[in-house]
Design goal:
This protein is of the alpha+beta class. The chain has helices spanning 5-18, 54-63, 78-87, 91-100, 124-130, 168-179, 188-194, and strands spanning 35-36, 42-43, 67-73, 101-107, 113-115, 121-123, 138-142, 158-163. It has a single domain, classed as Glutaredoxin. It has seven helices and eight strands; from the N terminus they run αββαβααβββαββαα. The strands form three sheets. It has a four-stranded mixed sheet with strand order 4-3-7-8, sandwiched between helices. It has a two-stranded antiparallel sheet with strand order 1-2. α4 (91-100) packs parallel to α6. The protein starts with a helix and ends with a helix.
């Protein structure tokens, strides 16, 4: 049996739970409160724990039948906080996102090293600049497989992007737009207009 990095991270999470962390996040439909991290960002307990190697994270998500998305945040960003305390607080939204996506949270001015799809290792801040991410929160949705992304220009690796805060209904619509692959033949605006009222 081969032990994967995901096995190690899951084992670490299980150990943390055994050490006394609340399991309320896994009970019922009510989402758990976001956690305020040492770097001043709010984080959902179900966000991806990662070694920050994007091709591996995307491929792991694909193996689980999920899509991969990066959420860019900044300490003190009021709309980032609203995304956690309003959007992700709705069980229909958090349950949909958890079931269909792996969400990697990155800090737009962070210094952690991230390996991009082309193998380049950059700080979070440098990666944000490489992709032209200027607002928080920003959600970057990527193609289903990592291999082809290596040869593409950075902005062409995304299938959709949500720069800035989206109201809850539009927010969940963006995730459904990506999950349903509607980006192949229509804009997000057209997709939202076609939704039943």
């Amino acid at each position: 049996m081969t032990i994967t990095r995901r096995d190690i991270l899951l084992c670490s999470a299980a150990s943390a739970l055994a050490a006394g962390f609340s399991t309320a996040a896994f009970a019922g439909d009510a989402p758990a409160d976001p956690i305020l991290t040492d770097d001043g960002l709010y984080k959902e307990p179900w966000f991806l724990e990662s070694f920050l190697v994007l091709p591996e994270d995307l491929e792991d998500a694909h193996k689980e039948g999920k899509r991969f998305v990066i959420m860019w945040e900044l300490k003190g960003c009021p709309y980032c906080k609203e995304t956690h305390f309003v959007n992700f607080a709705r069980p229909d939204i958090s349950n949909y996102v958890k079931a269909n996506f792996e969400v990697l949270q990155l800090n737009i001015i962070g210094s952690r090293k991230v390996t991009d799809f082309d193998g380049q290792e950059l700080s979070e801040k440098e990666l944000a600049a490489k992709y032209g991410v200027r607002f928080t929160p920003t959600f970057q949705f990527f193609a289903e497989r990592a291999g082809p992304l290596k040869k593409l220009e950075p902005q062409k690796r995304e299938v959709a992007r949500a720069p800035g805060y989206l109201r809850p209904d539009d927010f969940v619509a963006m995730f459904k737009y990506v999950r349903e692959k509607a980006y192949r033949d229509k804009s997000f605006g057209d997709y939202v207009k076609a939704l039943p009222s």
